[in-house]
Structures are given as C-alpha cells and as structure tokens.
Amino acid sequence: MIRAFVLLTTKPGTSQEIVTSRKIKGVKLASSVFGRFDAVLVIETKDLQELAKIIYKVVEAHPNVVHTETLISVFPPGTHKVES
Predict the structure, then answer these.
(1) Would you say residue 57 has pLDDT above 90?
(2) Per-residue b/e over 6-37, b at no fewer than 16 CB within 10 Å?
(3) What pTM, to 2 d.p., does this model score?
(4) Domains defined along the chain, listed by start
(5) DSSP class of 34
(6) Could you give the CA distance from residue 8 to residue 68 in angstroms, rounded to a whole number?
(7) CA-based angle 61:34:48, to the nearest 5?
C-alpha cells in the first residue's frame, strides 16, 4: 500500500471547488488549506502505477489545477507507530 500527500496550487478561488467537485478513487482526505498551497489530498493506492494514474489522469487533468507536488510516505499506512 502506498500513501501520498498531493499538494495542489489552483487558480484563485477554486480550491474548494476542486476538493468537493468529484469523488476520486483512492482519495482518503481532501482539504483546502492556507499557505503556499491551496489544497492537500491524501491518496492511498495499491502501487505506484495506480498512484500515477490518479495524479496524471484525474487530478492534473482538472482545468483549475495549476501545479501539483507529490510527497510519498516513507512508511506504508498502518505500519508506523508514533511513540508518545
């Protein structure tokens, strides 16, 4: 299992439209944010090929997405415990 955090830059005023416009398979969380980026997606897929397909064919194909930056988690989902 692969987990990735996809940081999006969008056309002004469109980030909320993007995170609510459609349900994308594999997206576990989508949120508009303040800061350098306009939105963040958390995507979980079975492999890198599926992740690439979602990012290139679905996310980047959206007309209001200007730029994406993808961060792939070092630890697969559910395998890393944080000590408290």
Answers:
(1) no
(2) bbbebeeebbeebbeeeeeebbeebebeeeeb
(3) 0.85
(4) 2-72 (3.30.70.920)
(5) S
(6) 5
(7) 40
